[in-house]
Design brief:
The protein is 36% helix and 23% strand. It is α/β, with parallel strands linked by helices. A nine-stranded mixed β-sheet has the order 13-12-14-15-23-22-21-18-19, sandwiched between helices. The N and C termini lie far apart (53 Å).
Amino acid sequence: MKYIFVTGGVVSSLGKGLAAAALGTLLELRGLRVVFQKFDPYLNVDPGTLSPFQHGEVYVLNDGAETDLDLGHYERFTNCVLSRHNNLTSGQVYESVINRERRGDYLGKTVQVIPHVTDQIKARIRELSDESKYDVVITEVGGTTGDIEGLPFLEAIRQFILEVGAQNVVNIHVTLIPYIKAARELKTKPTQQSIAKLREIGLQPQVLMCRTEHPLDAELRQKLSMFCSVAPEAVIEFRDVEHSIYEAPLIIYEEGMDALICKLLGLQTPEPELSKWRKFVERVVSPRKRIKIAVVGKYIDLQDAYKSIYESLTHAAASQDCGIDLKLIDAETLEDTVDGELKDVAGILIPGGFGDRGVEGKIKAARFARENKLPYLGLCLGMQVATIEFARNVCGITNANSTEFDQTASDPVICLLEEQLEVRNKGASMRLGTWPTKIQPGTLAEKIYGKDEVLERHRHRYEFNMKYRDQMREKGFEISGTSPDGSLAELVELRDHPYFLACQYHPEFQSKPNQPHPLFKGFIQAALAHQG
């Protein structure tokens, strides 16, 4: 078993997760079995209760774990299917240690960061390696070197290297090489300081991944090599991608990074087969046609809030040799009028969210899509607002609403799941993870999926109220996907519409570059047909 640890320095948001995913792509294409792990130093047990403005999207895994969005990069870029064992937070570590102390597991010892906290961290690394299903474990450490909350993780890694042998480990440090415009120079001093901080902890990186807006010349590479004690060929230029994050594996391949890692770890592998990846990137970068898609949400100002949705649209569009022009619309701006904002788009997507802010704007956007025969894809809350809109404006249920927005609603077409009625804690208490959906025969959904049952990932508390099923069906509102026992609506569509589908689950968590999710692919095909 070989281990790769990815740390970051100078500033946050350098793209450590993307760097790890890009490297994993190349190693997997070399025939290695790769798995990922993310260490998050914050004290939250998981990011499930964090605002998207604080942390970006919450990425849900098959087993229901609410995790960091970097795990989305890992699953999209490789064939990994991850679980809660692949994401560890300080909150989980301390919770586990304290619970063990309360049980008396430490036999009266003084419980300390070293060894008890660090032992818990090392145990999580070994959980993956003990499974013997992988050749390489890539572990990304969140945060920035020097952050006080990250120190136990770095100390645990130092100890772990001693235990497994330095010959089985590569430390990669992702760092920033800032460009000082006035001096017209790239500066290495911040990286030198970051490496010095790592050395204080007892870690020496073998590889530097240098985030930069400008090329690194030979002189600068040599300087970084000398001051940071890494080989010149291990100073990797990781420049900003020109068009798409999917260029990242190709960039580091040209730098020889995957070959270097295999050399350092003593792995004999063939060259990676990159033809399919290059073809996908080519379709993303130079598509033959383009369409404009509106995304109507409440977290539009933050790019990472809907990360998986944007990537799923990219995957689906590339499969049609098509480029996407996203029109990002704050739902609150549509509460007065929608025509001006939506008249020039080929499709409307409404993503998930919580709370009533912007809901009326989303309802109006769903109505615009229905009345103008515009392709519509609703995800989670996007399904619920479409349901409310149809009930109010087609079925004449004027007081239709969700109990999330109005607990005293007289016509709650969307209501709290029965299992949620007694739930009081917010963390990890929703309907989470992968659940089966039975697809109804003769529906558009059956045509799109080509299956009678699918597995999809969920994250929600509220559901369609089945008391209104028959009344809405008479008007053309079809429940085309249900739970296997038929008690829960999972997927809905409109009979007299070319493409109006909305699901209670999150299909964006199962889309990959060369395997677009069927609902997104169908949405893009319908948008292209609408555009003509």
